[in-house]
Inverse folding.
């Protein structure tokens, strides 16, 4: 109980921090919104009026409190460029991003675990060397390069020309498959090198422990050692890895993949907001994703406690 | 403590580490050549026709504007080193400083504050953080550098903190305390030098991360603002490849890949050299 309370306080402090950082960067230090909203030829009264609406006459603490309050009540305002409510933009785009990113994220981790296990089992032999070598190679290729190569190879007349070059016209499973394949492969390739190396290190360390040696000495089969001992005992580092790669892989990855392939998800919306300096969208996306990620971390801590009661 | 001779003895027997070091050194010489004004100076001159094939004049052909791709990719070596060095050095210094303070005063409010800050920075998705910094700084060229330094130090900070906590109960530290040396002097003279192996590896890792990040940020329009980089060349090439012109893409991605794999091999070798246990695994 004390553990859970401690983790919740920790999570609250983190939420305080991430909202503070996004508030300071985008609202407090951010560019003056007055003329974006009312245009160049405003009367002094209009300027004063809009300044009051934006809270420019209020102290730091109050404006920060308002920002957090708006964030948690999903009162996010309207986009500067389209005039649409940010909350309705997010409702439309979040499902697209999830449908786009989940397959690649899951497969990237599963393949990483499989390759990591294979390498760890054949430690020091050619299979291990091959896998480790390919991982380093994979880590040395830029995400952007992978996307371009796969696009040329799979979606243009210079390659196999099997899939659409860009876009997202998804209605049925077949069209989903057609549009999701190239982005999914890109995501797998960009994460596989890092994942494999990480999981290999985890499995190598785990299989060097005493209880594994004991199990082997007692004649347990290598399959049972693998599944019952190595994999099971590695669950905590695996979970940590998966959870902590969400912001980098899923969120940052969607920014690049969606803006490159022109897919209407959160990443594309964010990219457009960066390009246009659309403050309401930007501050909502940054604030909400950071808060969501803190919540995921707290949740992970709870799951650990369920999986392994010894953890403090 | 870190000794150059020891490091060299370890590296000498590591073939892939030596290969990595050589690649990095070759690129460094190119970067110095650009700095000295000897190489790649005509990167912005549109001297050829659009999309010329490679020949004696244009070794890698020309891009959509008729600029020499070879000159551009060479000049970009300097851009990459500039970003890599600035980001890796400053983020490592910041991480070493904050990590050492946190480790030395562990479980105090300073430690908690540093831990909280690392937690906060690690919780904001990185590209969104850069976007926020770029927005706050209104498209200034160094927004990218600041954002990377502000976030890359956290790993170094955590590792240094753990190492300092481990070291501070050792005899040499206790005796330094016993003869009454001030805390700051113990930290700077006795503890930080003993974390130099962490700092060196982390600098190398941050260098790789900075170069890779620049590519993505430049594509997104919040990276390099003036000048040319492999990231900007790749961003240009995204349109060209769809029209079947691959020279720009091949030059930028090839150079980028070579430098990255050089650094990755070097980093691995450094890690192995400092941690024989890990190498044996």
């Amino acid at each position: 109980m004390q553990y859970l309370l401690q983790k919740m306080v920790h999570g609250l402090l983190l939420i305080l921090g991430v909202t503070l950082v996004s508030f300071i960067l985008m609202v407090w230090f951010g560019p003056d919104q007055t003329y974006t909203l009312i245009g160049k030829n405003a009367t002094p009264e209009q300027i004063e009026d809009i300044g009051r609406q934006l809270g420019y006459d209020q102290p730091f603490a109050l404006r920060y409190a308002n920002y957090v309050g708006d964030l948690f009540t999903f009162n996010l305002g309207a986009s500067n460029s389209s005039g649409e409510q940010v909350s309705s933009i997010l409702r439309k785009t979040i499902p697209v991003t999830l449908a786009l990113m989940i397959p690649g994220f899951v497969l990237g981790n599963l393949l990483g675990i499989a390759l990591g296990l294979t390498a760890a089992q054949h430690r020091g032999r050619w299979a291990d060397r091959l896998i480790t070598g390919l991982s380093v190679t994979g880590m040395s290729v830029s995400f952007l390069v992978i996307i371009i190569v796969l696009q040329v190879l799979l979606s243009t007349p210079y390659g196999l020309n099997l899939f659409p070059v860009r876009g997202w016209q998804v209605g049925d499973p077949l069209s989903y498959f057609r549009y999701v394949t190239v982005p999914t492969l890109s995501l797998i390739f960009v994460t596989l090198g890092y994942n494999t190396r990480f999981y290999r290190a985890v499995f190598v360390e785990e299989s060097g422990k005493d209880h594994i040696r004991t199990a082997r000495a007692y004649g347990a089969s290598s399959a049972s050692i693998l599944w019952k001992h190595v994999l099971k005992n590695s669950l905590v580092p695996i979970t940590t890895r998966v959870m902590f790669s969400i912001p980098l892989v899923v969120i940052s990855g969607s920014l690049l993949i969606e803006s490159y392939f022109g897919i209407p998800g959160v990443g594309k919306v964010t990219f457009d907001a960066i390009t246009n300096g659309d403050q309401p969208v930007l501050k909502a996306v940054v604030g909400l994703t950071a808060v969501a990620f803190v919540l995921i971390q707290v949740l992970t801590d709870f799951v650990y406690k369920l999986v392994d009661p010894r953890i403090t | 403590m870190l000794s150059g001779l020891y490091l060299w003895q370890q590296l000498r027997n590591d073939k892939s580490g030596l290969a990595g070091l050589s690649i990095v050194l070759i690129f460094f010489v190119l970067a110095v050549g650009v700095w000295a004004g000897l190489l790649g100076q005509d990167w912005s001159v549109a001297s050829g026709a659009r999309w010329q094939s490679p020949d004696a004049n244009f070794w890698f052909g020309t891009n959509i504007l008729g600029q020499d791709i070879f000159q551009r990719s060479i000049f970009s070596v300097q851009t990459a080193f500039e970003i890599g060095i600035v980001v890796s050095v400053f983020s490592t210094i910041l991480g070493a400083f904050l990590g050492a303070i946190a480790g030395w005063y562990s479980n105090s409010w300073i430690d908690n504050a540093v831990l909280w800050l690392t937690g906060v920075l690690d919780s904001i998705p990185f590209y969104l953080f850069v976007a926020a910094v770029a927005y706050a700084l209104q498209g200034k060229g160094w927004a990218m550098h600041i954002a990377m330094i502000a976030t890359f130090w956290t790993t170094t900070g955590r590792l240094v903190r753990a190492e300092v906590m481990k070291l501070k109960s050792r005899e040499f530290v206790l005796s330094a305390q016993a003869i009454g040396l001030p805390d700051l002097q113990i930290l700077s003279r006795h503890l930080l030098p003993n974390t130099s192996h962490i700092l060196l590896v982390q600098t190398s890792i941050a260098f790789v991360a900075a170069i890779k990040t620049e590519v993505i940020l430049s594509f997104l329009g919040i990276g390099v603002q003036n000048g040319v980089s492999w990231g900007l060349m790749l961003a240009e090439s995204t349109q060209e490849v769809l029209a079947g012109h691959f020279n720009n893409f091949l030059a930028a991605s090839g150079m980028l890949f070579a430098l990255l794999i050089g650094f990755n091999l070097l980093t691995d070798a450094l890690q192995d050299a400092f941690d024989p246990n890990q190498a044996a695994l």
